[in-house]
């Protein structure tokens, strides 16, 4: 009941006419600390379970991050996403089309978290039976989750801080109690003040309950609260707070090393500060993010679709020695594939392919930029073996082959060049560990905030700390604007596919560009021409999603003209 109370399950066309359930009620958690813990676990479960909303069943933190923050950004082309969106909506028409489910999902998801968190914050009192430290820890977790949800709302529905008239722009409704009361929109500054207050209180409660720790990484703790504080402070351009909180958040965590970087994000690692831990604690079946988006996901095998490709514009900017390049199947991998093949099979590589063939219509379908014919498919097939050795690694016997298809005589789907092999799943439902927050993000947040604070020494130190593990013999030699661009580039590749891209570009006030595949032009992009875009930071009301009708239609205190002024 605790889980389903906040969820919205509907695929019908009348879902816009259903008033959302928000009165979960604090009574269900008020009796004892065990009930409060069950409620807290329900919120965390709702972050990666399926809702069956609109055109897809996988609506949770992972889906929101991938579909709305990665594929809507410039660095990740997701043709699985384009299968659900029309070209118009994928090219950001969805942001303003409030008559469809797109704008509702982004509003509904954070408020589900908020409503359930409020039930815990309201419900756990002095009368709740149980040790005070345990109660304080659970309330701290609920406050952390509420702050996270409001940060999500700001990312999508608020303007950039510099465009907010010092926070005077109205953005969303501050719901701090369990109720269906009609409430007016609040200002961006008011929402940020509440986020800061929630996290300050949460950190204090965590400190007071120092003998208590979370049982799983899918639940928040003090480090997560500090990491969220850093995210909120970056939105506000509160650079000093962002630098300090990002630094504090990552204490006790190490960075993922070169070997771990290619373990497929299947099991929790030491650098995972917050993740769904789906691979080891729970399997949610075909609601799993891995089923849809892991390179060896079961739907990836069933459908003739890839799960995400890196934009060649980003790939070309990477250091030639950056090991993160091996997350992707790109034209420059052909010589590596040939060398591996000949060494493994002790026979000559039978295919004559060049990098230019990736811009040849005989090998690439221009409408989809999918490999056309057996040659590129075979190359992709062997590159999978080369980089991940799934066929020989005894620890990966329950990993399905990526892009597998036995119907075409080759055993692989016709993948897109740039296709990712960063994220994998294991077992029948492609179980995985999707990172909500990693120590690498905090290193890069600290670097960015330090730079904006005029502290280039710390910014360079943070960048070196991470990149020396990714680029052999790395040395940070940039300064000034070039240093900021290097920090941003590192963030784009390190956190690729982890739900940061669109909101980062928005926060950085940079344009959104998708360059298309052009026949014969080896310097062109790798997305179909249908999805070519070039949006300025001022477009789409400064990259703000339209006000959800699930709020404005049923809450008379919400005045759309205030939101759009």
Protein described:
It is a single chain. This protein is about 40% helix and about 5% strand. By secondary structure, the protein is mainly α. α9 (about 220-235) runs parallel beside α17 (about 440-450). Residues about 1-25 have low confidence and may be disordered.
Key descriptive features of the protein:
565 residues; mainly alpha; two-stranded antiparallel sheet; 23 helices; 42% helix; disordered N terminus
Quick structural summary:
The protein has 23 helices and 14 strands. By secondary structure, the chain is mainly alpha-helical. The strands form seven sheets. The chain has a two-stranded antiparallel ribbon. Strands 2-3 form a two-stranded antiparallel sheet.
Layout of helices and strands:
Layout: H1 27-30, H2 33-46, H3 61-70, E1 76-77, H4 79-82, H5 87-90, H6 101-123, H7 132-157, E2 170-172, E3 186-187, H8 188-208, H9 222-236, H10 239-249, E4 272-275, H11 278-281, H12 289-293, H13 298-302, E5 309-310, H14 312-315, E6 328-329, H15 334-345, E7 364-365, E8 370-371, H16 374-388, E9 404-405, E10 411-412, E11 419-420, E12 435-438, H17 439-452, H18 456-467, H19 480-494, H20 501-508, E13 512-514, E14 533-535, H21 539-543, H22 549-552, H23 560-564
Antiparallel strand pairs: 1-5, 2-3, 4-12, 6-11, 7-8, 9-10, 13-14
Helix pairs in contact: 2-6, 2-7, 6-7, 7-8, 7-9, 8-9, 9-10, 9-17, 10-17, 15-16, 17-18, 17-19, 18-19
| Weakly predicted, low-confidence segments | 1-24
Distance between the termini: 40 Å
Number of helices: 23
- Largest sheet composition: 2 strands, antiparallel
Helix content bin: 40-55%
From the spread of the alpha carbons, the general shape counts as globular
Mean pLDDT: 86
Number of strands: 14
Q: Strand pairing plus helix content: what structural class?
A: mainly alpha
The fraction of residues assigned to DSSP E strands is 5-15%
Strand order of the largest sheet: 1-5
How much is the radius of gyration in Å? 23 Å
């Amino acid at each position: 009941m605790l889980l389903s109370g906040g969820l919205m399950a509907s695929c019908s066309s009348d879902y816009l006419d259903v008033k959302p359930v928000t009165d979960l009620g604090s009574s269900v958690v008020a009796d004892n600390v065990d009930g409060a813990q069950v409620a807290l676990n329900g919120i965390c479960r709702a972050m990666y379970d399926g809702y069956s909303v609109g055109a897809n069943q996988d609506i949770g933190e992972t889906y929101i991050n991938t579909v709305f923050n990665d594929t809507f950004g410039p660095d990740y082309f997701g043709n699985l996403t384009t299968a659900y969106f029309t070209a118009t909506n994928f090219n950001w028409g969805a942001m303003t089309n409030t008559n469809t489910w797109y704008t509702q999902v982004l509003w509904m998801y954070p408020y589900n978290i908020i409503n359930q968190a409020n039930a815990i914050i309201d419900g756990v009192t002095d009368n709740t039976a149980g040790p005070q430290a345990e109660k304080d820890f659970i309330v701290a977790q609920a406050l952390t989750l509420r702050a996270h949800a409001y940060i999500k709302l700001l990312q999508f529905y608020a303007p950039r801080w510099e465009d907010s008239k010092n926070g005077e722009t109205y953005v969303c409704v501050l719901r701090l109690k369990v109720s269906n009361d009609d409430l007016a929109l609040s200002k961006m500054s008011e929402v940020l003040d509440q986020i800061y207050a929630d996290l300050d209180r949460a950190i204090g409660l965590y400190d007071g309950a120092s003998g208590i720790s979370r049982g799983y990484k899918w639940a928040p703790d003090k480090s997560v609260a500090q990491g969220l504080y850093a995210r909120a402070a970056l939105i506000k351009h509160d650079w000093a707070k962002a630098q300090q909180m990002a630094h504090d958040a990552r204490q006790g965590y190490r960075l993922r090393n070169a070997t771990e970087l290619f373990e497929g994000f299947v099991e929790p690692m030491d650098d995972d500060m917050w993740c769904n831990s789906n691979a080891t604690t729970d399997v949610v079946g075909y609601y799993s993010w891995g089923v849809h988006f892991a390179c060896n996901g079961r739907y990836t095998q069933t459908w003739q679709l890839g799960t995400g490709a890196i934009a060649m514009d980003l790939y070309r900017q990477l250091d030639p020695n950056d090991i993160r390049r091996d997350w992707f199947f790109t034209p420059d991998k052909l010589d590596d594939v040939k060398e591996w093949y000949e060494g493994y099979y002790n026979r000559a590589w039978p295919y004559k392919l060049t990098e230019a063939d990736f811009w040849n219509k005989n090998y690439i379908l221009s409408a989809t930029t999918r490999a056309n014919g057996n040659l590129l498919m075979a190359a992709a097939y062997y590159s999978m073996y080369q980089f991940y050795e799934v066929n020989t690694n005894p620890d990966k016997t329950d990993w399905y082959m990526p892009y597998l298809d036995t119907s075409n005589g080759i055993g692989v789907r016709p993948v897109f060049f740039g296709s990712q092999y960063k994220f994998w799943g294991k077992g029948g439902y492609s179980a995985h560990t999707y990172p909500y927050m990693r120590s690498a993000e905090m290193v890069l947040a600290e670097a960015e905030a330090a730079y904006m604070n005029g502290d280039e020494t710390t910014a360079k130190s943070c960048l070196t700390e991470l990149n020396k593990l990714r680029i052999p013999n790395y040395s940070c030699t940039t300064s000034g604007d070039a240093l900021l661009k290097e920090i941003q580039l590192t963030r784009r590749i390190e956190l690729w596919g982890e739900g940061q891209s669109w909101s980062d570009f928005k926060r950085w006030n940079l344009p959104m560009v998708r360059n298309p595949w052009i026949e014969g032009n080896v310097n062109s992009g790798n997305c179909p021409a249908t999805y070519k875009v070039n949006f300025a930071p001022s477009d789409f009301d400064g990259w703000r999603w339209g006000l959800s009708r699930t709020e404005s239609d049923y809450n008379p205190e919400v005045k759309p003209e205030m939101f759009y002024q």
